[in-house]
Write a structure and sequence with these properties.
With about 400 residues, this protein is of the alpha+beta class. Helices cover about 40% and strands about 15% of the residues. Strand 11 and strand 12 form a beta hairpin.
């Protein structure tokens, strides 16, 4: 089916919205044949009507979990069609109802805010903007599980092994003695000689299990000198941003970092440095394993990595978002160059008492090439920050610190 035929099956108001939006942007119909085929398939689904029924929102929500857009990784006519078809349903939902479908809410709010869609929607009396209460959205518990549970299971296994060791060895000893001609006395002597060390060994294993298996406490994952690979950096994409209702200098962002649970709520103090228009639909680098923090009543689950230049008198002279390379996708791993860091896994959550990020942060800098990097303060070695697709860079600032 062609693009025109698929659009013709949409209801009149949605069809007009798609046509109006696509008039000034040819990319909405697809940048390649593959994209065009995907767009047509999605428009067909929307035109059939089942996808956007109230009873099917749970299914649609699961489909949209990993997606910023539907058919491709950029805005297309399929997104305009889905937004238009969803509008009469979403506009009638109350907070608890749209909170229960977070991926749809995030997607819908993102699409309705994009400039060409908003312009076409405003020209129609049908598609008024829908305001969502995202500040009071129920927060997802992202607290890392204590690492001691696994250790406890290992200790239990050791103890169980110890408890079965003695009877097994004793049974083997009895069988061997029954086959000899030494009589009952010899059997008794052998049994005593063999049983005692086995029982003692079992006790020793139990003692070792209580100590952690080696006689020493097992080292915690964050013990030792802090290294940058302990920090979990990932590519993020801002799907929504608004000013904090109770703080003039704070933004509340919904940032997609490729998680099945949907975007994370992030609070950043960038209002006085980056206009809100420049925050929308922006790719960035997010620090994802800091302990969640309350920021004027809103819990923040990550931190936006920025480069900050300071003038000679110590005053801030500019702040920018560090940018991932082209073709980066939400959730892409960001790592530090160097054999000692590239294959290391970050901690699930940084312990604030260890001050790992605070120890590493002074070494963050933008190079002459504007590439973001960490300079080892001890050796002076430079480790650029990158994804598999290339380097992370500052838009303009050189020699700036990152935080």
């Amino acid at each position: 089916m062609s693009f025109e035929n698929s659009v013709s099956k949409l209801n009149t108001v949605v069809k007009d919205l798609v046509a109006s939006t696509a008039t000034n942007d040819s990319s909405l119909t697809g940048k390649s044949e593959k994209d065009q085929a995907e767009i047509v398939q999605w428009i067909e689904k929307v035109g059939q009507g089942d996808l956007v029924k109230l009873d099917n929102l749970k299914y649609l929500n699961s489909v949209l979990v990993p997606r910023t857009y539907t058919a491709t990784n950029y805005l297309t006519a399929a997104d305009v069609a889905l937004y238009g078809a969803l509008h009469p349903i979403i506009s009638k939902l109350q907070a608890p109802e749209y909170h229960s479908h977070p991926s749809i809410t995030r997607y819908f709010d993102h699409i309705q805010s994009i400039s060409p869609v908003r312009k076409a929607a405003d020209a129609s009396s049908t598609f008024a903007i829908v305001n969502f209460d995202l500040v009071d959205t129920p927060k997802i518990d992202r607290t890392a599980e204590p690492p001691k549970k696994k250790e406890k299971k290992e200790k239990t296994a050791l103890v169980e092994s110890a408890s079965t060791l003695a009877p097994a060895a004793t049974a083997a000893s009895s069988t061997a003695d029954a086959l000899t001609d030494g009589g009952k006395e010899k059997k008794k002597e052998k049994k005593e000689k063999k049983e005692k060390p086995v029982v003692d060994a079992a006790k020793e294993i139990k003692k070792e299990a209580k100590k952690g298996g080696t006689g020493k406490a097992a080292p915690a994952a964050d013990e030792g000198e802090p290294v940058p690979s302990m920090i979990d950096l990932r590519v993020g994409y801002i799907v929504d941003v608004q000013k904090h209702p109770d703080a003039d200098g704070l933004y509340i962002e919904q940032i997609d970092i490729g998680e099945e649970t949907g975007p994370r709520t992030v609070v950043s103090g960038l209002v006085h440095y980056i206009p809100i228009e420049q925050m929308r639909n922006k790719y960035l680098i997010a620090v994802c394993n800091l302990k969640p923090a309350n920021m004027r009543g809103v819990k923040s689950f990550a931190m936006v990595l920025c480069d900050q230049a300071t003038s000679k008198d110590g005053k801030e002279s500019g702040i920018e978002l560090i940018q991932p390379p082209e073709n980066a996708k939400p959730g892409d791993r960001v790592y530090f160059e160097g054999a000692e860091f590239e294959n290391s896994s970050p901690l699930s959550q940084l312990n604030p008492k260890k001050k790992i990020f605070e120890t590493i942060q002074p070494g963050f800098v933008t190079l002459e090439t504007r590439e973001a990097a960490w300079v080892n303060p001890t050796t002076g070695s430079t480790h650029r920050i990158r994804t598999k697709d290339g380097m992370c860079v500052a838009p303009t600032l050189v020699g700036a610190s990152l935080s």
